[in-house]
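Checklist before submission:
- one chain only
- standard amino acids only
- sequence pasted in full

Submission:
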Amino acid sequence: MSKRSIAIIGDGKMGQAIRELAQAKGWKVAAILGERESAGGKGVTRSALAGADVALEFTEPKAAVANITAALRAGVPVVAGTTGWYQELPAVTRVANESGTALLWSPNFSLGVNVLIELARQAGTLMRTLAEFDAHIVETHHAKKKDAPSGTAIAIGHAVSDGLNRVVPTTSVRTGSVPGTHELIFDGEFEQLSLTHVARDRRVFAEGALAGADWLVGKRGVFTMRDLLKLPG
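Returned file contents:
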């Protein structure tokens, strides 16, 4: 991984995890903008981003769109890890294209989770003819996570529903300090099949986000982890 210069938008637990891992890996952390500094996007300027090659946005849904849009308009590509704002994705995509820079967004930057999403799609296809099996998604996160279901659960749901050709319900649990657990269950009368991903540490998301940041520099357009990992489909 080359030594890039990054700006971190969001000084919560994820922002801190990214900073620590970035410094350990030899990245230059040019700026860290907390809620006060970013000021709902107004403080996300070219000078505030301090010449960063790429910005990593991990805040909260109500602030994400303004922060991402401001960074793109400042000519800085963005890795967007906040979830719960995807209804605004078409508008943000237009800004990325008009500004001639790049956006990499994902509901989850864990490499394992993105493989799980692909496995969910394939599992749905294989289980399509087995009508006696019910399908359900259960996702568990820390008590402070504001969006439910999680963006990852929604992505898993879309993938498995594409394969099954029917909607799969999701149950969301918010408790304690769980980084993130996602389980896809196929339950029959006498047997159960499940696919599970357990995140043990927030650094797994930080590592994926930094890999995305390194990959994004110099590109134009809007991308997801499918592009980074060269997943099929």
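Reviewer check: The chain has two domains: 5-105+203-229, 111-199.
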